[in-house]
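ARCHIVE CARD
CATEGORY: sequence design from structure
SOURCE FIELD: tokenized fold
FIELD CONTENT:
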């Protein structure tokens, strides 16, 4: 069988949870003897085609001409994906960002399509289900954001669009009434896309229920993401030995941006006695200036270890006394939390999105591994 995974970012340049999951699915399909392909927007002058590890073909296509959240349909980007998947039997659409909000309807004409939801994109025009938290050129908003400031708007949990219109109007440079009209149009596109798919899948109960309420559609099927290379038996990994009086090592994994709660945990660490905690940051800074602010707030307690691969988790978990996932975003799954818990690392998560689901699942067999703390206030 020929299977393609359409994603929003070139995984050789940017790899978040969506890209990690899509690549993992493609590699496992290739191991099972299928022809696996990943289709992503081209960035820069990279080659149009490349074979990745695991015998997965990466096909880079023309990106959207205008990434604005007010532009829904881009025929050029859509047709580029159609051309790149013309010979494919099954297409998994992991994201519309970077493509076009009529992509599934065109793909479904002559092939099987799975709409695989990952985050709050289907219910939030700014992407992460947090007011003002998404939409700048770097991908993540700042505390000021491209929309309304955090705290000014309470994100709705149902189909109400007035709070959303108030939030996105500044980003669109328009009035709230005009923003609401655009959001109505966006919702109509998304309903039509999900209706055209042969299957709609969400990785968490939280996201499935939220999409159903916001769009007024059937609840997507919940299939949780798997985790690469978990500790044997899912048990606790051996901890690195610490000399007496050594600081507690707190691991902050994943992309670093204010919407991910990085500054919240840095502030909490900075309030603790000097030398008692080391905040170990692994991943990439995706919002300019966040690392400098983490250093300032943590008062010299922050360490930056660079990006990592899924295979690095055993060593990372062994080095950490505690893993924190303090995201303010409405996380659709929480892959870094799932990875940490699968490797037996005690993990504290924010009380938002699907993160509590990750702790609940792990606590069924290892009740001491996880804890849920208030979002935006990890103290």
């Amino acid at each position: 069988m020929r299977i393609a995974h359409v994603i929003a970012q070139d995984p050789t340049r940017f790899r978040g949870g969506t890209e990690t999951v899509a690549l993992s699915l493609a590699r496992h399909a290739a191991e099972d003897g299928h022809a696996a392909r990943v289709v992503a927007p081209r960035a820069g002058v990279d080659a149009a085609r490349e074979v990745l590890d695991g015998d997965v073909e990466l096909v880079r296509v023309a990106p959207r001409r205008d990434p604005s959240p007010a532009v829904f349909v881009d025929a050029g980007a859509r047709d580029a994906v159609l051309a790149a998947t013309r010979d494919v039997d099954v297409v998994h659409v992991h994201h519309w960002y970077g493509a076009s909000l009529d992509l599934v309807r065109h793909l479904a004409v002559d092939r099987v399509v799975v709409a695989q939801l990952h985050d709050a994109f289907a219910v939030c025009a700014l992407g992460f289900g947090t007011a003002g938290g998404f939409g700048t050129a770097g991908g993540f908003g700042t505390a000021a954001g491209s929309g309304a400031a955090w705290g000014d708007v309470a994100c709705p949990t149902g189909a109400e669009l007035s709070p959303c219109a108030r939030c996105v109007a500044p980003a669109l440079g328009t009035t709230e009434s005009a923003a609401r009209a655009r959001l109505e149009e966006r919702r109509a596109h998304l309903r039509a896309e999900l209706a055209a798919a042969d299957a709609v899948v969400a990785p968490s109960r939280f996201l499935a229920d939220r999409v159903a309420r916001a769009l007024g559609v059937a609840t997507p099927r919940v299939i949780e993401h798997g985790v690469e290379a978990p500790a044997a038996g899912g048990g606790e990994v051996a901890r690195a030995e610490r000399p007496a009086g050594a600081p507690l090592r707190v691991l902050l994994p994943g992309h670093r941006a204010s919407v991910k709660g990085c500054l919240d945990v840095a502030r909490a660490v900075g309030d603790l006695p000097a030398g008692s905690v080391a905040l170990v940051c692994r991943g990439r800074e995706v919002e300019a200036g966040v690392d400098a602010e983490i250093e300032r707030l943590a008062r010299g307690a922050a360490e930056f270890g660079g990006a990592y691969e899924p295979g690095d988790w055993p060593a990372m978990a062994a080095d950490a006394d505690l893993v924190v996932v303090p995201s303010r975003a409405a996380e659709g799954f929480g892959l870094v939390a799932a990875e940490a818990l699968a490797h037996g690392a005690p993990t504290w998560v924010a009380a938002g999105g699907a993160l509590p689901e990750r702790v609940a699942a792990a606590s069924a067999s290892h009740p001491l591994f996880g804890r849920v703390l208030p979002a935006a206030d990890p103290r």
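CARD ANNOTATION: The two ends are 51 Å apart (CA to CA). The mean pLDDT is 87.
SHELF: design records, drawer C
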